[in-house]
Amino acid sequence: MLPLRQIFLTMITFDALGLDARLIQATDAIGFQHPTPIQEKAIPVLLSGTRDLVGLAQTGTGKTAAFGLPLLQLIDEKQRFPQALVVCPTRELCIQIVNEIEQFKKFIPGMYVVAVYGGAPIGQQIRDLKRGVQLVVATPGRLIDLIERKAINLEQIEYVVLDEADEMLNMGFQEDIEFILQNTPNRQSTWLFSATMPPEIRRVSKRYMKDPVEVTVGKVNTANRNIDHQYYVTSAQHRYEALKRLIDFNPGIYGIIFTRTKADAQEIAEKLTREGYDIDALHGDLTQVQRDKVMGEFRDKTLQLLIATDVAARGIDVQGITHVINYELPDDVEVYTHRSGRTGRAGKTGVCMSIVHVRELGKMRQIQTIVQAPFHKLEIPSGKDVCRKQFYHFMDKLLQLDITHGGYEPYVPMLEEKFADMSKEEVLKRVAALEFDRFLKYYENAEDLNVREQRRERTERPSFRRDRDYDPKLRRDTRGRVFGNGGDYTKLFVNLGTKDGFYKASFLQFILDMSELRKEVLGRIDMKEMNSWIEIDKKAARQMIAAIDGKNYRGRRIRMNEADSRR
Predict the structure, then answer these.
(1) Which CATH number fits domain 230-380: 3.40.50.720, 3.30.428.10, 3.40.630.10, 3.40.50.300?
(2) Residue 92 to residues 96, 97, 99, 165, 316: CA-CA distances in angstroms?
(3) Is 415 exposed, middle or buried (0-12, 13-18, 19+ CB in 10 A)?
(4) Is the pLDDT of residue 68 over 50?
(5) If you ran DSSP here, which 8-state letter would residue 466 be given?
(6) I need a labelling partner for 445 at 20 to 30 A (CA). Which of 33, 277, 312, 314 fits?
(7) CATH level 3 topology of 4-216
(8) What is 475-562's CATH topology?
């Protein structure tokens, strides 16, 4: 084993990767001393400017610097037109990438980068583009809107980066990505970064990339090894109490709780807020202003907890998250990987907890098999365990409290006089009572929330189906996904189309958000200018109609009904 000093001496530095002096100056100013593994492997390849690359690494491993630094070196800052394009799935990630690149280009005068994304005035973004920029960071929907308005010209784009490509495909942006790549005919190289490597990404790389270099950090389609995966088994009616108890058992938690529906997210947030927790919800019903406010408070740690749906949380990258809690398991293994990957970043450890109903144990075991990481089944803490944990945490805080600059000296004589007749033990008891009275009363007679596994669980059917388990009786959509049951599906009509500003991906996300259904129930979607037709599992059709029919979209009443019905 090498001595510690020798290990540090052999660690590579940024200037050894071939970056120019201005970028080295920027990394030094930020405090970056040594590149992360993805940066070390990707930057020398990307600096050539002519090689396509597929970078496979978990979120939080330094991917932005891995592609951002080479882009800044390759771009000619003297030419004020778009030369490089970064495409990412969400507004939050778009802003984050721009903020990081702004730091990297600090010592390159004349270099301009602009973010374009939905949910913000398009007019201002068009004006920013007209002023002249070299690097554009965009979400797919807004970028296509700008292309069709002829507000941006991509013909001189030399470098295209697809960041979090698996997330974009999971959101239904495949057609949008292909449209963008088709509209960058003169690109010198394409760089694709992803946490996982599903077949859709493999197909995109084969179609639009030429002999790409593949750089892998960690194992593909596996969870981050810095994450401790835990699950707790309880009954459905005790799920909320189990959540509350796990939060209380982890004082100092800074985490995200995931729910399936926005209704659950809002309800749980309201309950926990009433009970004194610093928490807020993030879901599709929030305006952009409300969403920004919630995220700002969470990043500032004014909020200790954020509860969100998968759709609402896409692209969120917040440093220092200690815990991710699955209030319910997702339906897709890749979604589990994305959820859990929001903790345990940048070399730090994290915890991913799942609250599991006994009927979900088969699904839990299947997730474990596919993720290829150890999962630990733990007992939901008892009320006494929670009180004990909180008490120890309080004592540690008390001992570590800095009182040297508090200006308390003038009040010490008053305190000494007030407590002169009390022993130290009695004073400590009163301090403890002040802090823990609520906990002690709440958990005094707390019931056992654990449910024990039964042997019959082995008969459970797996919840995740493999594509190879093909059944010709099952209806499949254009991507080969199974939906419906033995062909029991129907077609819905809706008076929304491309004229309303929708593309297929944005339309898909819209109807799923409105109905709170999973994409697996949908088949083919045919969009026209004025209306659309949706194939859907017959069992889910009524729920979608009830959720969407009669609602308003941009001042127009939405009409949705079965395509063969008369209204």
Answers:
(1) 3.40.50.300
(2) 6, 9, 11, 15, 6
(3) exposed
(4) yes
(5) P
(6) 277
(7) Rossmann fold (3.40.50)
(8) Alpha-Beta Plaits (3.30.70)
